[in-house]
Structures are given as C-alpha cells and as structure tokens.
Amino acid sequence: xxxxxxxQAYLLRVCFLLGLCFLPPxxxxxxxxxxxxxxxxxxxxxxxRAPRASRTRFSQFATQGDGLQRWRSxxxxxxxxxxKLGHYIRLDMKSRRFHASDELAEAAGGxxxxxxxxxxxxxxSGDSCFAKVGRQGVYWGAVDNSFALDQLTPFDxxxxxxxxxxxxxxxxxxxxLRCYQNSWQVEVFVNPRPDLSTITHQSGEDWEALEDSxxxxxxxxxxxxxxxxxxxxxxxxxxxNLPTPVFNAQTTDFDLAVARYDLLGLSLVxxxxxxxxxxxxxxxxxxxxxxxxxxxxxxxxxxxxxxxxSGNHRFNAGVWHxxxxxxxxxxxxxxxxxxxxxxxxxxxxxxxxxxILGQWGGDPRQGMMTxxxxxxxxxxxxxxxxxxxxxxxxxAGGLVNSIKREWSLSTELEWVY
Length: 417
Description:
Layout: H1 3-21, E1 54-65, E2 68-84, E3 87-98, H2 103-108, E4 112-125, E5 129-136, E6 172-181, E7 184-191, H3 205-212, E8 217-226, E9 229-239, E10 244-248, E11 253-257, E12 260-272, E13 275-288, E14 295-308, E15 314-324, E16 334-347, E17 352-361, E18 366-376, E19 381-392, E20 406-416
Antiparallel strand pairs: 1-2, 1-20, 2-3, 3-4, 4-5, 5-6, 6-7, 7-8, 8-9, 9-12, 10-11, 12-13, 13-14, 14-15, 15-16, 16-17, 17-18, 18-19, 19-20
C-alpha cells in the first residue's frame, strides 16, 4: 500500500472517531418552548484557568495533509491591567518559529522567526465615553464568517484557520472613540497608516511600496439599541485589504493597485427569544475591476441566524453574497454566495470545547469543513486536535483556499502560565 493510501486510511479512522465526539446527544430538554425563559447561569465551579494580569504561552503546532505541512512553534506574552480608575492597558505579543518543513519556510528557502505585536493599547473610560489608542482590531459586522462590513481590520493568512476567523485578523495602530447617550451610541475610528493583509512574510519591496502609498482610514458608526433589537449605520473611507491587478495603458502591462473607496453600511440584529436574526448590507464605491482600468460600485449582503439551546449548544448559519473577482484577463466578476455553518459546545465546566466550522459556495466552487476538540488538562496544559476536509478548484482564491484541499490533521500542544 502506498504512503498516500496509508495516510488516507489513517485519516478516515481519525475522522470516524472524531465524528463520534462531534455528535453529542441533543436531548429534548435542550430545546425550550417559546414560553420558557433563556437564562445565562454562571458555572457552579471555578473555571480551569483563573484570570491573571499576565500570561505566558508556548505552543507547538503541526498540520499534515496531502501536500500541506505546518510545523511551527509560538511563544506569546499577554499583559493587561487597570492602572487606575478609568485607565486600562493591554499588550499581546508573540514570536513564531517556522521550522524548515513548514510550507512557509519552504517557500522562504529555510526556517525563520517572525515577531509580532497583536495588541498594544491604552483605554480611558469616562461616565459616557471611552477612548482606545494603539494597536487594536475593529469588527462591526453582525453576521459571523462574513465580511461585508468588516473592512477595517486586515487578515493574516499565515495563521491557520480552524473553526474561528478571529485568529486570522491582524490589529492596526488606530484611535477609537465611543460615546453613549441613552439608547444611542456613536463610535469614531481613525487609522493614520493602514496595512494590507499578510499573505507571506517575504512580501518584497513592491508590496511594501504599496503599503507606504496607502492613505489614512476613518469610519463613523451610529448605533441604536433597545431590548431585543440593535440597528447600526456605518460610513467609512477605507483602503482595500488586498491589491488588485489593473491594466496600465502606458506600459500595456498589469500593475498592482489598491482601491480607496467609501463604505456605507447597515447592520441589524433582532432577537426572537433564543434566536438571533442578523443582517449586514454594504455598498462599496469605486471597486477596482481586475485586469481592466475601470471601477464600479458594488453591493454586498450577508444574512445570519444564531441559536443557543438551554444546554448551551451554539448553532450559527449564514450566507454572504458578493461579487467574486475574475481569475483571468477578459473574464467578468460574477455574483456569488458563500454559505457557512458553525456549532460549538463546552463540556465538563468548559474544560472540553468542541466546535465545527463549514463553508461552501463561491466562484469557483469551494468548500471546507473543520472539527476541533480543545481540552484543558490542567491549569497549565491543554491540547487541540482538528480534522479538516476541503475541496476547491485549483484556481480558487480567497479565504477558503488558505486551507489546502483534501484531508488534513492539525494538532497543538499548549503550555500556559
């Protein structure tokens, strides 16, 4: 039997065993009728990890699949503290080692280190306002796993996507001011020097020149909230997170350019007992059309449903409708829909957390499914095991293609102090 066949047989056995874990019984009493209340009760016992002012974390992460290898180590440090009444600081930094067999190290020609500051901000809070200054992320969309409105925080595609897109978001140096008045809230965001999304750590001089040419970003968000309903209006002037190949008539060649555009958006969340109905609608002006010198305005719409049972099973489903960019010169961008589904549940006072994330659709067709088991053994040790299956065309781009096709198995051992 070939090595490939042995690997596939092994992964299928692992998939079967994980499938037994990821299908816990949902009893009839987990689903409440419409006249029962939804109560969030704290756990009876203390969590496995007590909060600390600082936390040091070391992890070893590996992924093996057909044509996919990740082998990396990470050392991170987090610190947060209230300096005095109304003042708060947070630091989150990490150093990653990409070993020689890691796919990014192979592309770079050998093993290497990468140091990053994820968060570094100071926050001041008053009676009705607060301000946050420093490296941070801003997430204004209501529909999970869609990004019609979440345009202010770029992605880091060197991170592994398992069951949460949060790990792929990269903070930026910005100023965020928010004020409250009764049911109203106003938020202002200013980023003097935006960054592009990270695809590789060896981006080159052309990529750095594109980032240096970006202009400041700003956004305003007006929100009104009452019991069971949340409505927000957004107006932003932003730079695209990725460059677009456009035609240069002078050189009769293609150059990389970054779209600068206005974003107008509406976000709505409606609670119907245990069910949350979520809607994001966005209008993007002056979108660069790939392989041409033209621009056009585009609409994006995302719809989502979120439901939590009395047994704390967390279900989420949604669809994101957008214009997929053309893959080749002469093609036109096509309207496409990306569907998503996720589930999560904590067991044994949240010492074991199981979750699933699935996405499919797009143009070209693409899809993926990942099941993750995260278990906290002691106050200091935990492990994660994830089984992923993805199926995408060779030319498929975007978020899903950041995970390779076919089966892959990821493991992580983590030590925290």
